[in-house]
Amino acid sequence: MKRNINGILLLNKPSGLTSNQSLQIIKRFFGATKAGHTGTLDPMASGLLPICLGEATKFSAMLLNADKTYHATLKLGYLSSTGDAEGEIIAAVRTKLNNEKLSLLQVQEVLQTFKGWIKQTPPMYSALKFNGKRLYQYARKGEEIERKIRDIVIYELYLDSWIENEMSIVVHCGTGTYIRTLAEDIGKALGFGGAYLTSLCRNQVGNFSLHQAYQLDQFQGTLSSEHDAYLYPIESLLQNFPSITLNQAESLFLCQGQLIKSTNKINLPGGTRVKLYDSRGLFFGVGEITETGAIAPKRLISNKI
């Protein structure tokens, strides 16, 4: 039975399920008419998967470009066709450095070279498109497509543990970063000829953390009001947006697609996105400050809420 349910569920996706499979389980459990997630986790990966239900799907893009934090375990000295443990594993061609005893300081110094803005080539096993098809569709047929090198940013990268050729790292990165590719590049930089991921867990997306998330097995059996209480409000996706409260007339004009000059004192530069609240204190969408100080509607929720 479909319900008019709206909000964000923070799910701890288990390893072994695709993001879409996890999404469909949650969508069916809540009876939501619409559902979407805010960034795919590979089947092998686990961790934080924010799922938007109902009207919240209109704002899911707000998290697609958010920074993220991962805990990754690397197997040094081997390469994988997919970059992780699900692919074909082969021994890497090791360099002379691998035969030397690396000190902890040397490892940390190498990791530091990956911080900041760096270049990265997306892997073939990715959802990027070429001529209308996903790259992984070509990869499964053994085809190699030339990919454009992209700029990514690594805010933090530090060593968590290191025993022989197994290493765990924590990565805080910007959008578009492929941890599988980063792992392989780190393995090469350390002199092991490469590396692949044996585990990956996403701990943070934007302002949301894994400790806030619920386990998938909590969404079995009968739906109750307790489950609805697990949902975060739509505006929680917009925590860094300033808020503006409008009177009834102003709210109506915006909902009709018109620009309004707010009676509130707005001291925000043009182009600033803002959360919109009506006179009852209810969130109803996102607006944008124009160069003249007016408010333009950008994305509004249905008035059926």
Oligomer: single chain
**First CA to last CA: what distance?**
18 Å
Number of strands: 18
Fraction of residues in H or I helices:
10-25%
How many helices? The count is 7
The biggest sheet amounts to:
10 strands, mixed
Shape: globular
Task: Describe what this molecule looks like in 3D.
There is one protein chain. The protein has 305 residues and is of the alpha+beta class. Helix content is 18%, strand content 33%. The chain contains 7 helices and 18 strands. The chain has helices at residues 19-30, 61-64, 104-112, 135-140, 179-189, 225-228, 248-255; strands spanning 7-13, 35-37, 46-53, 68-76, 78-80, 89-91, 116-120, 129-130, 133-134, 150-163, 166-173, 195-205, 208-209, 214-215, 243-245, 273-277, 283-289, 295-300. The strands form 4 sheets. Strands 1, 2, 3, 4, 7, 10, 11, 12, 13 and 14 form a 10-stranded mixed sheet that branches. Strands 15-16-17-18 form a 4-stranded mixed sheet, covered by helices on one side. The protein starts with 6 loop residues before the first strand and ends in a 5-residue tail after the last strand.
